[in-house]
Amino acid sequence: MTVLDTRALNRATLARQLLLDRADVPVLDAVAHLGGLQAQEPQEPFTGLWSRLRAFDPAVLSDLLVRRHVVRTHLMRRTVHLVTADDAVAWRARHDAMLRQRVLGTYRRELAGVDLDRLAAAGREVLADGVPRSMPELARAVAHRWPAAGTRALGEVLIAALIPTAQLPPRGLWRTKAGVRNLPLASWLGREVDPLPADGSDPVGQALVRRYLAAFGPAATADVRAWSGVAGLPAAVAAMRDELVTFRDERGRELLDLSDAPRPDPDTPAPPRFLPAFDNALLGYDDRTRIVDDAHRGLSVAGARVVLVDGRVAATWHVDADVVVVTPLRRLSRGDRTAVAEEGQALAAFLSDGDGGVRIDPSSP
Fold this sequence. Notes:
five-stranded mixed beta sheet; alpha+beta; 15 helices
């Protein structure tokens, strides 16, 4: 079986993630291809798409949110993702068990004795009036029936697990600060979530595997689960084995892939790219060594914004008064510093309408 080394996996990841060459595709198609963008920080998807698309116009993404073609909702890993409306409707039921399990893992004591089906029905009854509500507002509306549980636990389980909901605009619009207001997905999108098949088959699980490999592969089943959080995917993989090709990584893990997916030459040049906080290019794997050294793995879960140099995490970045400030994690060559500065200047212009600048601080110890 062919072995793909770390650099080969890195270049495949960059190509699938639209980070090797910026793509000339519509914004909606990019969101769909990526399987959504993690979006608990509302402005971060704009940077994520700017780094991936040519001539990205943030107003287009805002318009897609307003017109309900994309939606902000709890999905993969119980985190807020920006996904297409079609994917939200198709995927949500397959994530239900995971969402419940993860909320209960945090609030098991508070929710002990609470009939979750009755709680879900009570929450839907409150939301049936069509008035968008925050999580605390919804929790307070039902808390008199389960006073011992506390509003935080009630709100979390209702919004993040029991009732498929959308976070409504203006939250998530370009350069807009707004609190979270929720409505059921069915109300916001005008269509119900697709139910799971009654015959026990798993077409959604298979679709998730295909979509994941298209955007993240080659990858192991553990990587697919790390991205989605859902269980039972090995069975989905077994059912679709004949349409997949396999490799090994340097650790000996079996890697799955689509036969026609891009696997560029490992020596393909990779330009610097600025990634937003919680970007799935880092978080979407169990084994993240293809893109970040183990010593810096914690950056991906801490919400650090990172810079890729030669395809790997080499610096962090933040914005200070319209200046993109880059802090290298290792010494950069003169050529790399120049390329990072040029890309950082372009990002600063995007974030500030052309008035920003870039500064590269000394390397960290």
